[in-house]
Write a structure and sequence with these properties.
35% strand, Aminopeptidase, 6 helices, binds coenzyme A, alpha+beta
């Protein structure tokens, strides 16, 4: 299947039905880590739920509404990154991501996002990539900041995270800014 090599250790591949076991195991092993900042953990209770998610991502890709890729690090599934959706009218991609807790701190996500941002502007001809992070999610916020995104504002109480609302910090990168870095 299609594979995009980010570097010698990191590859991105579109998720396929055969990845359901590995993705469910990774999700299960990282529940507490991911639950801090992602709202969907309780909806993934079995491999069937993960299979359904993968099926949804394949329909999303087929409908040209963005895509979700698995991140393989040293040959093992390590996380997920992708455009949660694409607004073609306004040429905006909305990036989202998560990574295995034990593999944080190596630049895997920053490198993967850099590859997807380049792809978004060079291949998809988008004009803007948007990343929204919970205000308290400093590891996530560090990714657009490291990549040179501009912090554009705060959306108050933008997301219900289990038992509380969190504000979102909006980061944006424009095609013209990415090219002139
Ligand atoms: C958000 C998340 C993906 C960030 O993971 P991360 O490992 O901090 O990010 P990266 O993989 O880009 O690694 C960056 C770290 O590697 C270091 N690093 C090492 N080599 C690097 C390189 N070549 N390039 C960039 N960073 C490098 C950086 O200094 C940084 O370390 P630090 O945190 O000690 O400063 C992860 O914390 C996560 O999955 N959280 C839960 C889910 C979530 O919050 N998703 C986002 C919702 S908006």
């Amino acid at each position: 299947m299609f594979e995009f090599k980010v570097d010698d250790q990191i590859s991105l591949r579109l998720l396929e039905p055969r990845h359901a076991d590995a993705l469910f195991a990774l999700t299960n092993a990282n529940r507490e880590h991911l639950r801090q900042w992602l709202p969907w953990l309780d909806t993934v209770a079995s491999i069937t739920d993960t299979s359904n998610f993968i099926e949804t991502t394949r329909k999303q890709f087929a409908a040209n509404d963005g895509f979700v890729a698995g991140i393989w690090y040293q040959g093992e599934l390590a996380g997920v990154v992708g455009h949660n959706s694409i607004d073609w009218l306004n040429r905006i991609g909305w990036l989202g991501y998560w990574l295995e807790a034990g593999l944080q701190g190596r630049g895997i996500m920053t490198k993967s996002c850099r590859a997807l941002v380049t792809h978004a502007f060079a291949e998809l001809q988008l004009n803007r990539v948007d990343i929204r992070c919970a205000a308290g999610n400093s590891r996530s916020r560090a990714i657009p900041e490291r990549l040179g995104f501009r912090q554009e504002g705060v959306i108050r109480q933008a997301e219900w995270l289990y038992e509380r609302f969190v504000d979102h910090v909006v980061y944006g990168m424009l095609a013209s800014e990415w090219q002139s870095r």
